[in-house]
Amino acid sequence: MDILWYYAAIALAKILRALPLTSVARLGRIGGGITYFLDARHRRVAMLNLAQCLPEKTPAERRELLREHFRRLGENYASAVKTSGMSNEQVRAHLEVTGAEKLLAHGERGAVVAIGHFGNFELHARAGIALPNVRIATTYRALKQPRLDSLVKTLRRESGCLFFDRRRDGEALRRALASGGIFLGLLGDQHAGSGGLRVPFFGHSCSTTAAPAVLAQRYALPLHTAVCFRVAMAQWRIEIGDEIQTRIGGQRRNAAEIMADVNSAFEMAVRRDPANWFWVHDRWRFDKQRRGRTVNALAPA
Questions:
Q1: What is the pLDDT of residue 153?
Q2: Where exactly are the structural domains of the chain?
Q3: Residue 301: its pLDDT value, please?
Q4: Helices then strands (H, E): number in the chain?
């Protein structure tokens, strides 16, 4: 079965890469719209999340937002396959980076950048188009299927970004950070398991990774956020946020306080364009009381 998925993925990647980016984005939206009707499990998770986080919206508004969200997911995934094979000059016509001067101000020192599943988030690897002569790096978790994992790594490698497997490349990442000049993007908007920090997001406690705060403090690096917004069909803008303080008066801040600031920045980005974020992820899976309240709220009177 793995072999079938592998060759199917190769065929799909070749088809998408042969088409213009705008056509790929449109096809992705169609696929995402179909998935909305077929994927009941993720549709339900997303609706629960929306009901909790955006209670001011009516059920009809949340359903329409969710439909658009699934279209965006298809658009983003299909576009990511296409953009992974494009040169930096080709990508430049579809991607704008604002706030790059905030990172360039740190010079060869480097920085840690907390990123999330916003828009075509794979484009964070291409932020180097606005950051000349710097090294962009990020971490990832290898796929369970070796062939598919190899294919994904091949696609990502063309971006010029350094990729470190979170489970196997810890020592290599530490050496890279110690050497300086690395701008490291770390995903910080997913459930971090039982060992994660319990930090509020949309007013509700959720498991949050401490990695951006811990690495920024350990290597004395500034910490920023970055969000990828969809501005039009096949057009995106990455916005670099202001520096988040990791020390006050020379003393380290608590990691939970730092990540609360990161979550606050992410929440503002979600509210700005709700369909742009990854609602199908069960970010609050440990909050059983929240699930009960939300299910009751969705139940017919």
A1: 65
A2: 2-298
A3: 31
A4: 11, 11
At residue 299 the predicted structure's pLDDT band, cuts being 50, 70 and 90, is very low
pLDDT in tens, 13-36: 888 989 999 999 999 999 999 999
CA angle 124, 115, 154 (to 5 degrees): 40
pLDDT tens, position by position, 52-79: 999 999 999 999 999 999 999 999 999 9
Q: How high is the pLDDT of residue 300?
A: 36
Cα distance between residue 258 and residue 245, in whole Å: 7
First to last CA, the chain: 45
Q: Please say whether the beta carbons of 212 and 259 come within 8 A.
A: yes
**Block residue for tokens 């704008």:** 96
Distances (CA, A) of 36 to 79, 147, 262: 18, 28, 30
Q: Give the mean pLDDT of 114-129.
A: 93
d(CA 186, CA 225): 9
Query: Exposure of 208 by Cβ count < 10 A (0-12 exposed, 13-18 middle, 19+ buried)?
Result: buried
Amino acid at 266: F
Torsion of CA 283, 288, 289, 295, to 10 degrees: 80
Q: What share of the chain is helix, strand, coil (3-state, %, to 5)?
A: 55, 20, 30
Q: What is the DSSP letter of 181?
A: -
How far apart are the C-alpha atoms of 139 and 153, rounded to whole Å? 12
Cβ–Cβ < 8 Å for 209, 217: no
